[in-house]
Amino acid sequence: MFSLKSLMLSGAEVWPLVEGGKGISVSTGATCGAWARAGAVGTFSAVNADFFSEAGKLMAPVSPGKTWGERYRELIAQAIKGGVSQASIAHETSCGQGRIHMNVLWEMAGTEEILHGIFSRAKELIHGLTCGAGMPYKAAEIAAGYGISCYPIVSSVRAFRALYKRAYHKFCEFLGGVVYEDPWYAGGHNGFSHQEDVHCPEHPYARVVALRSFLRECGLGTVPIIIAGGVWWLSEWVDWIDNPEVGPVAFQFGTRPLLTQESPVARAWQALLFSLKKGDVLSMPYSPTGFFSSAVNNAFLQELRDRSTRQISCQDNASPPYDIYFPLENGGEGVYMDASGQDQVHNWRAAGYTVPLRTPEKTLLFVTPQKAEAIRRDQTSCVGCLSACRFSGWCQTQQGAIREGDPRSFCIQKTLQRAAHGGDPSEELIFSGTQAYRFAEDPYYANGFIPTVRQLVERLLTGY
Fold first, then answer.
1. pTM metric for this prediction
2. Does an H or E element contain 162, and which?
3. Domains of the chain: residue spans and CATH
4. Which of 123, 252, 243 has its CA nearest to residue 177?
5. pLDDT attached to residue 58
6. pLDDT tens across 38-74, in order?
7. Are 307 and 364 in contact (CB under 8 A)?
8. What DSSP string describes 24-69?
């Protein structure tokens, strides 16, 4: 028989149900506050969140600066405004119930400055910080400095061990929990190690038990583990609840909150979710962060896949078998390729892919003139949204490009902003967990039913 007990998280007893943080205006103060008001844990994203103008209008971040450095500074200032705005909305919406968590990506630009900026203005409104997409060594120290619980997001005991030994052992009293985010099933950026095969999922149970064992070794046996990725019906996880091997456990939902009345995503995006079938969410290697990420297989991903197939190896100097000279029409000295490469280039150019672009891995990528112009425009208008961007070559420590940008990637800020603010979901990056196909199969969503957050939480408590 299914039963779920409340759990102490961030200083309050709540249902062990957590809204997963989704960046770029998807997990907002409105959704967060609604989850908290339902007695659970809400999470708003501080990743380039929308903010209020002086006239009280909700605004998406814009960066009109002329230089990369100016746009970077504007982005940080607006990220702080956005985080404070969303925290205020979450607090007001929650009516003092539940818990309010804030989510950031450690590898986004200016993370430390943004955290200090938001916490210094809104620490009374925020109970917990979740942080992943990288190794957030400083996150615990920053959160502890404001009396806020920290929830690092990891995908293995190995990752948490490194965090704990380097930094977190100093701030154990502020470790609110550890989020185990399954790299094979969670949406968004995934924490695969070099030893793991993205195409061969491992069962999460052994990985979570290993994490619990290490927590016990550290004297943290009662610290909750929050399971993220692949969670749909809690009845499917009944063996994990009140299990002494697993210990105190909560469950995070990232995909199901997309289909709620409070969700800000466009109706076209929600309609897309109803149409998905098993296998329609793929793990892709093109993100400018360098991480794999899980997203809906659509025209956006297909173009990236096709783009990467049109590349050949080349060298700057002649050396067999690279002995055929190829002049670069878009400037710079030519390169050398082998005979088979020459034949491929001929076919690509005949099909309209006439512009060669260099990649950092000594290959030439062939695209249409229109795509080449779009890539160059996106690269030069970079706002510095990541600490280091594979696509544009940006690095925040230099506040400019210090390496060659990779045209096989894309501007993630641009596509996620457009997706969040009404863009065509077939033409933009749409992050999703692999369980999204269940919207079409779950009888709860029959006839296109979209619940409120409270209705969803009440449904989750039944086990389904």
1. 0.93
2. helix 157-166
3. 7-264+438-460 (3.20.20.70), 299-420 (no CATH)
4. 252
5. 67
6. 999 999 999 988 887 777 676 777 777 888 888 899 9
7. no
8. TTTS-HHHHHHHHHTTSEEEEE-SS--EE-TTS-EE------SSHH
